[in-house]
Amino acid sequence: MNASVEFSSLGRPAPRTGRQRVPAFVTQRGDAIAGELGDTRETIYAQLQQVAARNLAHFNPAANISPDDLTDYVLSAKSLCQQADLDARFAEPPASLYRDAHFDNSALTWLDGTTSIHQHGFSGAFHVPAGGSIHARYSFKPDRLIAHGQRAAIGQLERIDF
């Protein structure tokens, strides 16, 4: 195996640039999560949320990688892992950084920070390195029975928590 290391003028290894830190950090974290999850589908999905949240809390991505580092990496990488959302249905744009058979680690960005109340499935953990995220839960009670295929309904919306 051949490896090269750049040295600074002080004789110490030169610090990695942001774009060099990203793949090393993401691969190390992804491999650590995969190693903790086990190898059966049931075990993996039963533990994913707790393992991912613990990993994020311990390794704090924002302390190691900046949004500029991510941008530089994604735009300059010779190749990226298989992308989970090529149609960009969930972010503007999404970029998968690590891909395993059962989970992926993605950088999700939104250019427009406004959104209406919406619902989507998610299993795992997330970390906000810049900007913000607001999460609130609501209940909805329709005034009438909702017919199959109906796209809108009138009813009562109540915030449960914020």
Spell out the blueprint of helices and strands.
Elements: H1 18-37, H2 41-59, H3 61-64, H4 67-76, E1 94-99, E2 104-108, E3 137-142, E4 155-161
Strand neighbour order, sheet with most strands = 1-2
Find the count of extended strands (DSSP E, 2+ residues): 4
Content of β-strand: 5-15%
The description of the largest β-sheet is: 2 strands, antiparallel
Helices, by number, come to 4
Q: Report how far apart the termini are.
A: 52 Å
Please tell me the total number of domains. Answer: 1
- Rg calculated over all Cα atoms: 20 Å
- The helix/strand class is alpha+beta
Region (Disordered): 1-21
Verbal overview:
Residues 1-21 are annotated as: Disordered. It is a single chain. The protein is an alpha+beta fold. The chain has one domain. Helix content is 33%, strand content 15%. The protein contains four helices and four strands; from the N terminus they run H-H-H-H-E-E-E-E. Strands 1-2 form a two-stranded antiparallel sheet. Helix 1 (18-37) packs across helix 2. The longest helix is centred in the N-terminal third of the chain and has 20 residues, at 18-37.
